[in-house]
Amino acid sequence: MDPKYAWLPSNLLPDDANPDWMNKGDNAWQMTAATMVGLQSVPGLVILYGSIVKKKWAVNSAFMALYAFAAVLVCWVGWGYQLSFGDKFLPFLGKIDDALDQHILLGQAFAAYKFPNATMVYFQFVFAAITLILIAGALLGRMNFIAWMIFVPLWLTFSYTVGAFSIWCPNGWLNKMGLIDYSGGFVIHLSSGVAGFTAAYWVGPRATRDRERFPPNNILLMLAGAGLLWMGWTGFNGGDPYMASIDASLAVLNTHICAATSLLTWLLLDILFFEKPSVIGATQGMITGLVCITPAAGVVQGWAAIIMGILSGSIPWFTMMVLHKKIWLLKQVDDTMAVFHTHAVAGTLGGLLTGFFANPKLSRLFYMSTTWERYTGLAYGINNGRYGAGFRQMGVQILGVVFVIGVNVLVTSLICLLIRLAVPLRMSEEELNGGDEQVHGEEAYALWGDGEKFEKSVHNSVVNGADDVSGHRKNTRISV
After folding, report:
1. Alpha carbon of 168 to those of 85, 116, 144, 196, 445: distances in Å?
2. Which tens digits make up the pLDDT trace of 289-305?
3. What percent of the chain has pLDDT over 70?
4. What is the phi/psi pair of residue 385, to 5°?
5. In the chain, what is the straight-line distance between the N-terminal and C-terminal CA atoms, in Å?
6. For the chain, domain boundaries
7. CA dist list (Å): 28 to 120, 123, 233, 237, 301
8. CB of 468 within 8 A of CB of 462?
9. What is the pTM assigned to this prediction?
10. For the structural domain made of 6-433, what CATH number should be given?
């Protein structure tokens, strides 16, 4: 081979942009799915966070999401990907390495999937990014932005990578035990829900008047962000078979079935008990349905997805609307976006229901396993007389829940305590009162209701510095 091509992987020649092991359809779908997940964060959650909070926190809330997306990417390609999916260093962690080396990026992903590592790095990045952004939801309206800037890379490095390697990497200890987490019910949603709640405890509450009254500044924009989140979940769950397969199609359909059922269930409960159909409540129901189906999307049948939707629309509703007002710890922690209920509770529910409803035939499509001893839901184990396999799977799912909760409470607490030694976790009282203007020097809206108005000329041609009819510059904005 010509020395100038020596950097290429041995199985990739300069005139071979599509090596034998690559499937163009799988690669195209994987990159499309990854982009759909990225759009859930930017702009999806940026819009959702910026509109669901009080007007004075719109910029800060949206910016927390935008910053996390960028910071995670730099950390991910630097060391996060290899810690999560690299060679085994510990049973729960990979070796630190560089994910940007061309030999890695242009080689076949895990020597098994029909696309390059570059696609896998991109796909896994958007999952890591959205996890940090979901944590931000618990901290909106009071976390010191500098503290958040430090928190993101530390939590990604010491918490997310542990869960991802343990559960998703072929060398991870929970992966070897047969834990079913199709697309992140444990790694993403349970982790973010527990970590967000824990961080909210250490950061402290919002200002008293913000806790008492925190109306969304734009419900229509909130729905736009929620819609991006919902549709983006097509890539979230549809991309995890790592191929454009029949299992991917099933996962996508189950995802939307569960989300719609959960939304309707939450809505009916709101009407039944509060006599009003709440838009915010319906959005919460949509999210809990998406979260609940995530660990099970491609390994359960459609009827099971409906049952999961009913449960995800009712159990988190009960914990949020009833138990939250009765349990002392829940009342003490100010969880702005209720990520404990929508992600920790719904994620736990989904993980356990996966252990119950997982169809062994569908599981074998996803895991390419030939044994019945693993990936058999308890319902099928009982029905098929394989009691041991069913109870074993449920036990592994419970173990996964305990592990993820323990890791995230411990690591998140240590990170918050460490950051607190350098900078305050919570904003100052002046910043809490001033909001975006005080923290960033910027505001989301400049409206008449804020104390300013625009006065039109008699010719209706001048607004805040526009040229008047004589061609002279003129500023008609006045304070009232």
Report:
1. 8, 18, 33, 22, 43
2. 999 999 999 999 999 99
3. 88
4. 75, 15
5. 77
6. 6-433, 447-480
7. 12, 12, 17, 16, 27
8. yes
9. 0.88
10. 1.10.3430.10
